[in-house]
Design goal:
Pfam families: PHB_acc (PF05233), PHB_acc_N (PF07879). This is Polyhydroxyalkanoate synthesis repressor PhaR. InterPro entries: PHA_DNA-bd_N, PHA_reg_PhaR, PHB_accumulat. The protein is an alpha+beta fold. The chain folds into two domains: about 60 residues, no CATH class; about 80 residues, no CATH class. About 55% of the residues lie in helices and about 10% in strands. The protein has a four-stranded mixed beta sheet. The chain is globular, with a radius of gyration of 21 Å.
């Protein structure tokens, strides 16, 4: 059985959760996201997967209320990547960065009770290494070589 929850969006703009057999709101979908429930939103008019559109609607609501996560200059910079040669690389970079951030947030929460200073030091060192690798991958994909310091360490520039 497929573990992905199916939510149907009807032409009247209502969302129907097939698992609980009832109509739900965007707020309910947000709760699924927060609960890490795997789901897919399908447009009943054409069977298209519109999950991304629904998630973007939730983000717009979140941005409109309270303190926004994205500044206008940040959004403008993201828009500039659309259609460019680095769009795919940028998307992978953002996804990897967010996954790393979430994983480290979880690690900090778990390890904070041990020795906070050691935890922060270890995570900082790990972050520097990971960001350097991500930066090298981005530079390589853009046609540039490794930075001078990493070249000196004898790492393979390809």
């Amino acid at each position: 059985m497929n573990s992905e929850r199916i939510i149907k969006k009807y032409p009247n703009r209502r969302l129907y959760d097939t698992e609980v057999s009832r109509y739900i709101t965007l707020s309910d979908v947000r709760e699924l996201v927060m609960g890490r429930v795997s789901f897919k939103v399908v447009d009943t008019a054409n069977d298209n997967d519109i999950t991304r559109s629904i998630l973007l609607q939730i983000m717009l609501e979140e941005e409109a209320g309270g303190a926004p996560l994205f500044s206008a200059p940040m959004l403008a910079q993201i828009i500039r990547f659309y259609g460019g040669t680095l769009q795919g690389i940028f998307a992978r970079y953002l996804e990897t960065s967010l996954n790393l951030f979430a994983k480290q947030q979880q690690e900090v929460t778990q390890a904070w009770t041990d020795t906070p200073f050691d935890t922060v030091t270890r995570l900082t060192q790990k972050n520097v290494e990971i960001w350097a690798e991500l930066q090298d991958d981005l530079l390589r994909a853009a046609g540039f070589g490794l930075s001078g310091e990493r070249k000196k360490k004898g790492e393979d520039p390809s």
